[in-house]
Amino acid sequence: MSTMSLSPEKEDRLAQRMAALGIREDQIEETFVRSGGHGGQNVNKTSTCVMLVHRPTGLSVKCQSTRQQGLNRFLARWMLLDKIEAARQSRLQAERARIEKLRRASRRPSRGAKERMLASKAHRAVKKESRRKAGFE
Q: pLDDT by residue (tens digit) across 13-38?
């Protein structure tokens, strides 16, 4: 992706971020549509709105922040990377939570918890016993 309106540093940062996330340019489907809102005749006759779809994940973004297509292309890619990163983070957090839940479930109960559980069982047994005695008298 090369555009005239962006500095080489910004393009390099974007390329580095895409490489760090393992996203290639050929995985991104890019379409241009006409923007809406402010901009007058420019908006009506040029397709400055950029829509990106990341094929492997199915995530999509739409950017019409500026009147320049080149800048919108950059911003849309940046937004897509943010979205992909957030999706990966939420998956990792869900996996960590699942593992922690399993770890807690398999952990032995503390002495206090075991004593409370046994006391509760004994209390229920006493209640049931009193019901049985009342029924036979």
A: 999 999 998 999 999 999 988 877 77
Domain assignment of residue 60, given as a range: 8-100
Q: Are residues 76 and 124 in the same domain?
A: no
- Alpha-carbon distance 123 to 47, whole Å? 75
The pTM assigned to this predicted structure is: 0.67
Total domains in the fold of the chain:
2
Residue 10: both structure tokens together: 């910004």
CATH number, domain of 20, equals 3.30.160.20
- The upper half-sphere exposure of residue 12, i.e. CA atoms within 13 Å in the direction of its Cβ, equals 3
The pLDDT, as a whole number, for residue 99 is 95
Does residue 42 share a domain with residue 12?
Answer: yes
Give the angle 35-37-41 at the CA atoms, nearest 5°. Answer: 75
Cα gap 102→105, rounded to integer Å: 5
